[in-house]
Amino acid sequence: MRENHTIENQPMENTAPATAAAAATAGTVATQVVLPGVVEPDGLQVRHVAVPAPGQGEVLLAMEATGVSFAEQQMRRGKYYDQPPFPFVPGYDLVGRVAATGEGVDPALAGRRFAALTKTGGWASHVVVAAADLVEVPDSVSSADAETLVVNGITAWQMLHRTAEVDAGDTIVVLGANGGVGSALVQLARFAGVRVIGTASRRHHDRLRALGVTPVDYRDPDLYGRLRGLAPQGVAAVFDHVGGEGVVDSFRLLAPGGTLVSYGTASTRDAAGSSKAPVLKLFARLALWNALPNSRHAHFFNIWAGRRRLDAFRARLGADLGQVFALLAEGRLEPQVAARIPLSRAADAMRLAESGTVAGKVVLVPDEVREEAREEAREEAREGTREGARDGQSGR
Ligand SMILES: NC(=O)c1ccc[n+]([C@@H]2O[C@H](COP(=O)([O-])OP(=O)(O)OC[C@H]3O[C@@H](n4cnc5c(N)ncnc54)[C@H](OP(=O)(O)O)[C@@H]3O)[C@@H](O)[C@H]2O)c1
């Protein structure tokens, strides 16, 4: 990963702060990770820029946790459906503390901790977001734990309760049940009294069983035969992020009245060609199935749908993430942090997330945390040496 030490933009210490917000952030340098084009993880760049000042209706968040989502794995391949042109700062979501408030924002927000869904821009030490997009994180929940359930928790909650509208006693199939979205989905479903059949690699089966899920290996050549065997009457919903030809089999698993919730095309992440073609083909298929008189439903879930009515969108998102955070605070949802890695080592984080060897979300934390941790480790080592010397002197 290339470290770019130039400080872009004029550092704010050289300018007279024009607003209270600018004054609060003056003199601070922000770290950002940049995706410059279609690159391997090593091609990610680290740059240092002047900390941005929040404008009207905005706050500046000092990032405490952000993370690697599947979206960034697609974006670095140029495969995310509507990614911005390169170069850009990726980062689908973050948890941070309000470091400064812009005009028109309640100054009492300063110092409080919030989550925000950003799609891009989260892989930075300081991020400006609209105050209306903030969702408060309960005090008892750590930033890393909360981070695992921002995009994942909203997606899982909304697909389960708003799109599929499952009821207690229903049976559902969740593909990729150990993934970020998948593990949130299965836990929320179990909490709602739903029976869950989940596909995952074998190494994740024990954990899935512990969550009350019936696991099936997605590499089984007769995967759909096995799934049908477990629910011969059909299921109330199938959650499919894989796409491709398998989506036909997912639809066939449904009982009358059941709903296919398609929400990704993970199977084409590494395929050559257009990023839009597999999605458009999927949309066409779902539209056709919905039009047929077969009493089954097929939807594509898009977390950004409905943004044209921004107030309603924000209210929904805030309410749903609030419910997820409340369950997290009550200990009813188990967050899965695969690793905490300093922001400037985002390349390592990306490689780890893509390795398929870890369970849960790879979380990026501020670089200072690493420095603090190192200092603590040094202090512990010094303390240990001192104790060792004392023990030696006292003959213990
Ligand atoms: N539409 C939306 O609004 C929206 C929002 C959020 C996320 N998403 C989508 O949700 C998906 C999951 O995201 P994430 O961040 O949760 O990813 P993640 O943590 O990397 O999890 C991906 C999961 O998929 C499994 N998997 C990979 N290939 C598979 C296959 N062929 N069949 C079945 N499972 C397979 C993986 O299993 P192993 O670890 O065993 O390989 C893993 O459990 C992505 O496609 C993402 O784009 C969509």
Automatic annotation (TrEMBL):
PANTHER family, A to Z: QUINONE OXIDOREDUCTASE-LIKE PROTEIN 2 (PTHR43677:SF4), SHORT-CHAIN DEHYDROGENASE/REDUCTASE (PTHR43677)
Organism: Streptomyces alboflavus
Stretches the record annotates as Disordered: 373-396
Pfam short name (any one): ADH_N
Name under which the protein is recorded: NADPH:quinone reductase
InterPro entries for this protein: ADH-like_N (IPR013154), ER (IPR020843), GroES-like_sf (IPR011032), NAD(P)-bd_dom_sf (IPR036291), Zn-ADH-like_protein (IPR051397)
SUPFAM superfamilies: GroES-like, NAD(P)-binding Rossmann-fold domains
Entry-linked SMART domains: PKS_ER (SM00829)
Molecular-function GO terms, alphabetical: oxidoreductase activity
Domain Enoyl reductase (ER) residue range list: 37-364
Biased composition (Basic and acidic residues): 373-390
Coiled coil (residue ranges): none
